[in-house]
């Protein structure tokens, strides 16, 4: 029936249900941690899609423009609910300085959620076009099309792969599947499970009991495989493994740059650095401070660099800092050695749009648009690209540095092109921008996924938390609570051999998607009698 002939209340109710289903999907992410809600809500979204575009085999299939439009709107409504709940923390940066930026907060959330939901709209419409008939085959098609849409979300317009569907399993052994199929593959597996569950729940569907049993068996098998892989990974740390100290000064963003508070946070970081190790514990071989932990530009205060080195007692200290490289302002990570000597430096290369720079290049600069996190210094300039920090002299091998936002990109956790594999991943971050609820917890969850995907330990130093030591299968071996100041000493876990995902990335997933798409296209031509 054309949309114009459907009573308004009958059109609005399913769309509100689609928004609600998307919001329920988001409950799988931190801080809620309810992946079963994601699975059930995905199944409900598929049922809503079938209701919006019932379809039928053969000539009666609705792949007209109105049918595809209804499918796209169902997907967009689901995405709107999903991203609005998942990314509700996006308002937090605008509340740091409410007088200047607070008015932008609601617009940021609405525009972000609505814009990202367009990817889901495309995925839902493509699934209906591929499989005109409602049913489990359409769910299989959505597993492919939504996965491809999410992969595009991760790269288009600099990319924003925050809140990938597969991340809801981070607190379960299912996350270990990312070592084989990557985060997008785990998302596709989740949609397939939801499609099977939807087939079991669909009223009047044949063999509902078979679908229910199959769904349960598939989920149990996936969970068992993840559990076996997790238990096979070593959990007892070798006493000879080097210890790293993570410093968490807990400098609230609205206080961090106040003149009267700068010395408070500075002295706190020094005190945490010089604090003695616990009785009988190994002395740290490295100290790590969080992102932009220096109140001065790197290289402009040698006496302060020397104070850091003295507090560390001769072991290297990794700090986050701002620095000028010629006329370019960089968000940097630097190694400070004995005497305050500045050693290796890494410059963040994947900057946060609107936060660390304003898209538009020269025009944005001419208009004075600089980004929320850069204050009076101007927008940041990206660094040259990924590199490794050599810490073999400290017995720590080679570390892959990532600053804040960079850890949400699976591709950035891989070894730099043409270079050796790192021994561990290092993330420094200032999650004070994200508030004290969902944002920092979701950021930690994504760091855990990167460790699992690569089979590498990940060391995370965060200004206000959550600082953590993460082993190569994504387990947190030690953490400092959100919103607290402290120092955490933990042994650096040993890396595992390279995972299949580390070796080949998304190539097998894309090949499988291409094969499924080819099969669906062939079946579509047969169904439509062409």
Instruction: Please outline the major beta sheet.
Output: 6 strands, mixed
Q: Estimate the helix proportion, in percent.
A: 40-55%
Could you name the ranges where pLDDT drops below 50 across 5 or more consecutive residues? 1-10
What is the mean pLDDT? 88
Structural class: alpha/beta
Radius of gyration: 25 Å
Order of helical and strand elements: HHHHHHHHHEHHEHEEEHEEEHEEEEHH
CA distance, first residue to last residue: 24 Å
How many strands?
12
Strand order of the largest sheet: 5-4-3-2-1-12
Beta percentage is 5-15%
Count of helices?
A: 16
- What is the 3D form? globular
Question: Can you give a write-up of this model?
Answer:
The protein has 530 residues and is α/β, with parallel strands linked by helices. The protein contains 16 helices and 12 strands. The strands form 2 sheets. Strands 5-4-3-2-1-12 form a 6-stranded mixed beta sheet. A 6-stranded mixed beta sheet has the order 6-7-8-9-10-11, covered by helices on one side. The chain is globular, with a radius of gyration of 25 Å.
Quick overview of this protein structure:
By secondary structure, the protein is α/β, with parallel strands linked by helices. It has 16 helices and twelve strands. The strands form two sheets. The protein has a six-stranded mixed beta sheet. A six-stranded mixed beta sheet has the order 6-7-8-9-10-11, with helices on one face.
